[in-house]
User: Fold these one by one.
Assistant:
Number 1:
Amino acid sequence: MATTSKPPRGRPKDESLPERRREQILEAATAVFAQDGYPNTDIQVIADRLVLSKGTVYRYFPSKQELFFAAVDRGLRRLHETVTAAADPVADTLDRLAVAVRTYLAFFKGCPELVELLIQERAEFRDRKKSVYFEHRDARIGPWRGQLQALIAAGRLRDVPVERIVDVVGDLVYGTMFTNHFAGRHKPHEAQAEDILDVVFRGILSNSERRAADAPRSEETD
């Protein structure tokens, strides 16, 4: 007698569940770390938010420290993805830089929890040689260096070291992000970006003062 195979019982395995669960844990962890601070954060609180067991959270992230750094890394990956998606389609490099600055400031304005995590990382893990923020920055700044060097070669930028440009612009937006958070500034990010770009692109000297500063100094006579 021929036998027929029975269909497997139960629901089919959800292959996407581990990645979705990981993202859910990181989302909840970001909020709790930002609210309670790293030392006061209890993993059970994160688990309760997701109606999970504490053991489930530890299965994905074996320690609170690992969970914290994964949350910081996730936030910075989202920053990079957001800036890249906005800036990459822009053809001109200077316009692309302007879009990147505006998008950067807008991202942090909409994600103050990540700013809190960056502050906590510095406070709680001072022995680290490089913060996660600068690890991400250094890993992704390469294309900008090449684009800025091309602008110098084309005569569109002054012939100054590219690293100097990268550091100045990077420090300006980084500092603005923290100042906004600490001071509770509500100035539109578009206006802040325009202020930064205006000073970087045009400087603060008038044309006549710039010409005077660039002119060779006449030798002093007796």
Note: The longest helix spans residues 64-87.
Number 2:
Amino acid sequence: MPTVLVTGANRGLGLEFVRQYGKDSYNVLAVCRTESDTDDLEALAGDYDITLEVVDLSDFDAIDNLALRLKDQPIDILINNAAVFGPRAKADNDLRQSFGTMDYALWSDLLRVNMMAPFKLVERLIDNIAASTERKIVSISATPGSITETGPGLNAYRTTKTGLNMAMATLAHELKPKGVSVALFCPGWVKTRMGTDAAPLTADVSIAGMRALIADLTVENTGQFRRYNGDVIPW
């Protein structure tokens, strides 16, 4: 039975990844920051092969401990989904990501969770991934992380996704000799707690699209940045 590890698994995109992979008989390692707000995930666990792992990704010792618990467990697909968006100037009336009023402690926190933690997870779990059959690493990025398509505002969040893109693009080169493939995906604007109800896309459609791309991921097309529908996003 193949194994997929999903971070941010208790809601939104992560929960839908868990549902779809669980339905397709994957062993799912569902990583959540806390044991609270996991009712939907626990409901899925009654139907599918799901193991809940509580890991605060801002705590790198906790990531080390996860790696110890998963020693000798092959991981076919690692999905770095968990991320922090931060406050929005318009929607939240909060200017801490804005030029002139930047909260640098907030910026540092976002960088730690959105950019550094995914790299740390790959670093600690690479032996598990390399020992699997599929050997795939997927990180959920966002179009705001594209320098070509960037816009104003959300300065902290944007830079975390740009940094994630560079980190994973570099790893694509470093891990190719191990037969490990790496991909970055933008899920689109999805109806989730982060995306809000104004979003035009549902999670099931977004995840189905990204899963099709994951299925086609090889070392020949490693390191690409694509939308859920397959469109290549300019860096």
Note: Strands lie at 3-7, 27-32, 50-54, 77-80, 136-140, 181-186, 224-227.
Number 3:
Amino acid sequence: MMASQASEILLPLSDEELIKRFQRGDEAAFTQLVRRFKDPLTNYVYRFLGEIDRANDVVQETFLRVYHYRHAYSRDAKFATWIYKVASNLTKTELRREYLLRRYMVQGISTDSEDDWQGWNVHDPDSPPDSQVDSSLKQRLVQQALMQISPAYREVVILRDIQQMSYEEITEITGLGIGTVKSRINRGRAQLQKLLRNIYQDEQELSHT
């Protein structure tokens, strides 16, 4: 069977059916899962880390983990939440590594240092040029604001408002209680609204100077 024919056969299958087929040795099913999740996972991790190269590395590692540990997937779970949990854990590890590296570099420089709303998606490439410019500006402002709130708030806001996940799915990915998830989302949104107002005002002032 040709690859294109295999792809057409697998296309209507659910994520859970694909991972089951992959667990039985169907490599084409894994390829289909990569096609489905590569872009949304990259968007999620990029929003979290703020750097596309690092996001690509994390997503690549995520798929490697899925490939090698495919039998760890429980058939009772939703595949999307499982793969997002893998990506979330790898992203948090990358954040901790970055934090430790920066702390080490700061301490190496000075020994006197003290311890001192919905649907923000990537723009449509087929949209009119003016619309793309406006969308690009909005994306940049949103990302700038996201990087200024704590990772704990950033993660749940991205999952809810950018990835459009339910509260239940977010609890499965993060391991947090639903009350904590809702609280962090509300606090994260409030911080973002304040930051976006300030950032937008700064942009307006710069454009008139």
Note: Residues 153 and 187 are 7 Å apart (CA to CA).
